[in-house]
Amino acid sequence: GEIIHLEDYRPTDFVLERVDLTFELDPRETKVEARLIFHRREGVSPDAPLILDGDELKMTGLLFDQEEILAANYDVADDSLTIRNLPATAPFEITITTEVNPEANTKLMGLYRTSNVYCTQCEAEGFRRITYFPDRPDVLAVYTVNIIADKQTAPLLLANGNYLGGASMGDGRHFAAWFDPHPKPSYLFALVAGDLGVVEDTFTTMSGREVALRIYVEHGKEPRAAYAMDALKRSMKWDEEVFGREYDLDIFMIVAVSDFNMGAMENKGLNVFNDKYVLADPQTATDADYANIEAIIAHEYFHNWTGNRITCRDWFQLCLKEGLTVYRDHEFSADQRSRTVKRVAEVRHLKAEQFPEDAGPLAHPVRPTKYREINNFYTTTVYEKGSEVTRMLATVLGPDLFKKGMDLYFDRHDGQAVTIEDFVACFAEVSKRDMTQFSLWYHQAGTPLVTASTAYDAAKQVFTLSLEQMVPPTPGQSTKEPMHIPLRVGLLLEDGSEAALSSATGAEVTGDVIHLVERKQTVTFTGIVSRPVLSLNRGFSAPINLHFEQTPADRAHIARHESDLFARWQALNDLALPNLVAATAIAREGAKAECDRALIDALLAAAADARLEPAFRAQALALPSEADVAREIGSNNNPDAIHAGRQDIMTAIAKAGRDIFSTLADEMVVDGPFSPDAASAGRRALRNTALSYLVYAENQPDRALDAFKSANNMTDLSQALTILAHRFPDDRKTVEALSAFKARFGDNALVIDKWFTIQATIPGADALGRVRTLMADPLFNSTNPNRVRALVGTFAFSNPTGFNRADGEGYRFLARQILDIDPRNPQLAARILTSMRSWRSLEDVRAEHALNALREIAAAPKLSVDVSDIVERMLK
Ligand code: B3K
Ligand code: ZN
Q: What is the pTM of this model?
């Protein structure tokens, strides 16, 4: 658990030239032989030893150029292997034999077993659990992999690259050999062996090469991989068309497994996926599932260029591949679906996940400078804020220069392991802009706060916009420099037109972008003929918190007239938030809150506006979440009051809009066979939103029950069940619906996860008892990460009133769960524990309980580095 610092980076002493691996697979005693060819790097002292990483390894053999190494010349520990007296210049071969136990590998890092399939996960530091190795991303080598296994139980033998050949061995075993011609770091290594079904297709690349595409799933699940295959082909095409990137092997494979610590992994030519992000059909997958599958298939495929062909020099550069690849998958989804709706979903997600991280004890820069456990830095800051920084780069440069910069990056760094500085330098070079200040986005943590105020002088026809920025202090960074904040703006005039921004002085303006670069800046616009309504941070061009006291009338004007549809959604959100905050205060006093007419009118106008696409209208009607309200209030939070206040506002809107909602519920019925396309999904979303409001207005379950009974797809079915469970948890009809759902889908793990999730998120203090009961259900499985996340994770992350019970039982429960999970699977435990990252913004009584629960975890003996790193940072 040492702290690793960015400034300590230096290249390895030895250059790895080639890797030859042979696996003799066995569920409990797998033999791995690694033949590694090295030479000493020029200029390195001839005395320097070769030091390789290891983790929980048992070494059974060690050779130098096929000869035994004298005991005096090496030291073996379970986390490292040191070899001395190696040649000064000549290349040499080290052969290491290790034995590993895949079945006992519950951490799901390295080589493990899932449903009788051998599979690997090596990022970030899993390869060292397979053999001793220079396990770091700047060590790139060409790999040959031989796999030997029992033919009956493992007819399928896969590794990275192209298939070389294979044969039976006569002893009931067989072998296969794979060769990956592209030099890669060990974290991209993968091996899969077992008995799986396959879906096959082909893709012809832009230069006319035919690539074999294969998706492997459990036997019988092949039909559920069709959508993933379609998404893969669309991703391959899109990356050629938009980024000019072509695939580079003869075959591209995806394997879906049911035990996986995260979403998926971009191993070269052999992606391994959590089956949740591969399998879909109308009866079992929701529209959100389809959208996630499309996005994650694309994300992992896009890594082939942003991550694999060009990789990271060290793990501090993680956002080099992750932030950029998230940006690419966001753009892909925007092109495949609705750009505005996608942007709204992204911003909602960013604010719900990244903003709290950036405002709490786990805040860190997009490019961190130190870590204890790298697995704890696969965060929403590195991924989603990293993507926003890439988006801002495109905004600051404009599309043409951004594309030029990307092309230069691909050209210049193909085959290399590079840094954020290398990446940014490409954009500085093509734009001739000094990117030093912009780069602060990578280095300064915390969400900038921009305060805006305006004045209009009718006589002079002058409009002034005063901007001030402040970046809050974060752990380890008490003072901050002003950032380069690109703000897209619109000046909406009374007659519905927009004022030209070309007259602006006081800031650089390019197109509709104001470049805020000083701590304080005043921008003056002349020739403005009427008082304009300012639409600020259009499209969420910068990931900031904005303080701008705008009248409800101006916000309503934006909500109705902005040409930027994202800004319309933002304005509705800005209208709703003060209502929800006020309602919270009233609920805290035990009274019932009223809702402003301006909000109701604006929401209902959007709901009924047939010119707006249904998916957008659904987003407009989805009020800020309880977590959004908590963030807006900022401190001394009482989740019960937030919940009660929000219920009051929902009910008021529901009653006022009853006719509109009832019309929408009828109009938005989707006829014909199910199709997961964005337009149909949008209609379902709007219909289900309308249904949910109607249930608020009527306050009885019949309508949801009817929807549950008549649903012919999982989106409608799970939405109806959610309404029943959340609104009428103890009603006999709800209990019956829940058991009917369970009986119908009992053999489908991914749907049963939904059954757990729906119940884990039922609001109120009774939730904990329900979660405890569900943990005793035979379908609960504490070793399957998806199941644990569906019940324990969702309860902690997504049930504000249940988890934050005033008596602190929720926190104590979580602490016990973390301590129970940690010895088996530290990554999973550490991730779920981050649900407590905002504990300091709770009111005193809850905060005290949360603190005690965190202390209980911190005091436990034998914590993993993963959990102790998180808990210690949360207590600092
Ligand atoms: N690169 C992987 C994540 C690996 C997480 C390791 N703890 C998936 C992705 O971002 O595409
Ligand atoms: Zn990624």
A: 0.99
